Amino acid sequence: MSPTGFRLYAHRGACLRCPENSLEAFGLALEDGANALEMDVHQTSDGHWVVAHDPDGSRVAGDARPIHSLPLESIKRWRLKGHARMPTLDEVLTAFRKTPMSIDIKPRNPSLVGTFLDILQRFGAEDRVTVASFHHSVMKEVHRLGWTGRTALSRLEVAWLRLLPEELSRRMIRGQSAQIPRSAGPLRLDRNTFIERCRRLGLRVDYWVINDPVIAKKLLQQGATGLMSDDPKGIAPVVAAHSQS
Questions:
Q1: Which of 123, 180, 228, 238 has its CB 3.0 to 4.6 Å from that of 93, i.e. a possible disulfide?
Q2: How do residues 145-196 score in pLDDT, each as one tens digit?
Q3: How far apart are CA 90 and CA 72, in angstroms?
Q4: How far apart (Å, rounded) are the C-alpha atoms in residues 101 and 61?
Q5: Which secondary structure element, helix H or strand E, spans residue 43, and what is its range?
Q6: What's the CA gap between 135 and 153, in Å, rounded?
Q7: Structural domain boundaries of the chain?
Q8: CATH fold of 8-244
Q9: Which residues of 8-45 are buried (b: 16+ CB within 10 A; e: fewer)?
Q10: Strand partners, 195
């Protein structure tokens, strides 16, 4: 898929119907009509990257211990909602070798970035993985290490994009994808003027988390280039109808 093509991202997979961030959730999401996957990663105590949103297992596996404090062997014993395993990043990249992905580095620790990028490069994933993080220091390290694939804007870059004059923000932003909510505090990020600015700067505009078909339709009409949804099965028909209009 072209980086400029429309993407319906499965947010943590089809997480309304399967345990989030599991291989089962990702596979079901693609069957449901998603054409890209969104996920989050944390590093274990022995240096492996696992696909998980939370820093610990309390919500998804009933174990409050932080992921960074445990070896992979312990994480493998967790069961998400009683049955699914928490996969490693290697397992996801192996299972979905041709699928575009957005991968969010959750730890606020730039020193971990190198081992994460090593995995992506070993899989030759530069052309299909967008690297993301809310943390500007993490994204600075991604760029410093020479990642050649696409990157999402950090929270700070989104603020620059929204609040600074367009030419100034053009010079300060390093990423290629604005992965954003419809609003951030009092700031609206779903206005036509903002979407048009992103497009003039050559940025993708991908919104999360969109589960309402009415909102999805409106964002598509405004020019969004992607939607991240917990329910790709419910949003896929809206995307299909829009592409035929």
A1: 123
A2: 999 999 999 999 999 999 999 999 999 999 999 999 999 989 999 999 999 9
A3: 12
A4: 24
A5: strand 36-43
A6: 9
A7: 8-244
A8: TIM Barrel (3.20.20)
A9: bbbbbbbbbebbbbbbbbbbbbbebbbbbbbbbbbbbe
A10: none
